[in-house]
Amino acid sequence: MTNSDDEPPEEHQFSEGQGFGDAHDAFDLDPPELEVDPDQVDPVDSRAIPDMLNESAIQDDAIDADALIDVGLNYMSINRYEQATETFERTARHADDERVEQEAWVNKGVAHAELEEWDAAIGAHREALSIDEDSDHAATAETNLAYALWEAGRTEQALDHSERAVEIDSRFAQGWYNRGFFLLERGLAEDALNCFDNAIRLGLRNSNILEEKARALEELGKYDEAEEIVEEAEELREEAEQELIE
Question: Helices marked H in the chain — which ranges?
Answer without folding.
Answer: 48-55, 65-77, 81-94, 98-114, 118-131, 138-151, 155-168, 173-185, 189-201, 207-219, 223-245
